[in-house]
Amino acid sequence: xxxxxxxxxxxxxxxxxxxxxxxxxxxxxxxxxxxxxxxxxxxxxxxxxxxxxxxxxxxxxxxxxxxxxxxxxxxxxxxxxxxxxxxxxxxxxxxxxxxxxxxxxxxxxxxxxxxxxxxxxxxxxxxxxxxxxxxxxxxxxxxxxxxxxxxxxxxxxxxxxxxxxxxxxxxxxxxxxxxxxxxxxxxxxxxxxxxxxxxxxxxxxxxxxxxxxxxxxxxxxxxxxxxxxxxxxxxxxxxxxxxxxxxxxxxxxxxxxxxxxxxxxxxxxxxxxxxxxxxxxxxxxxxxxxxxxxxxxxxxxxxxxxxxxxxxxxxxxxxxxxxxxxxxxxxxxxxxxxxxxxxxxxxxxxxxxxxxx
Length: 357
Hints:
The protein is of the alpha/beta class. The chain has two domains: about 1-235, P-loop containing nucleotide triphosphate hydrolases (Rossmann fold, 3-Layer(aba) Sandwich); about 240-255 and about 305-355, CBS domain Like, CATH 3.90.1280. Helix content is about 40%, strand content about 20%. The chain contains 17 helices and 13 strands. Strands 6-7-8-3-9-10 form a six-stranded mixed sheet, with helices on both faces. Helix 5 (about 105-120) packs across helix 7. The chain is flat. The protein starts with a strand and ends with a helix.
């Protein structure tokens, strides 16, 4: 558990934090968000003593961080930042193993742990163990950064805009994959972002900050339904019911393809891809990969999939595309450009009504 008790941080006459109290329960994700200069990154840095509070107390698992060696404390807390911070002269395996090495783990243990973590984050150890950071894409580097933060099995993670430097599709993929990891590992996470959609999607709780204070600390659902002040209401915006759809991934609500779609169904699906709305039965939902094949032939399938609705997108993304195209359903694709199912406007409408209750 992470706890801040009436914490303030001042730089001369400037107050960066003003009496902040905040609790992150064990195994949960709390996201700090607010306008630039509100104190969210300062809050994060107080937990691992990159900064020291002017007043108040910061506790980790019930113990004041001031009673701990700053070096030892930082080794016991995972830290993921926007710029990743991989050491360029070290291989991926060496980067992942750096904190276990500081704890005295031998080379064989570190190698095994790196292989386990690469598999956990969906990267092939045979391909990536001996790669260098310069050989990685932005999304791959971010995954390695997360793996490094998990390497010593630290129960607490601090994440400062960890997905802010990657493109929108990779960001959604990384968010979904990280939520999958969190469901398995149940780390205690303090997460900083400037992106409200990311906060709603990632957080069990959200702390909205302004001028060095926490102005509302609550679940995403309650913040959207019952903003505590005019500032919070303006910050979250007017389309609050639609914003709740960010918490749901398309892959969890798609209708899967049948085992062997008929030629007629495939043709109907192709019509949907070309922008014609669904008519008649759900048969038109089942599309064909033919619409993707031409694009994939001139480049990688992954690049082609960037223009498609994937299972990693949110239901809000799906709703936006459905309404823009005036369609009742859309095909859903894997990152490799293969259709895996369809998402329907009627299903999204039902979910919206359920979460509004």
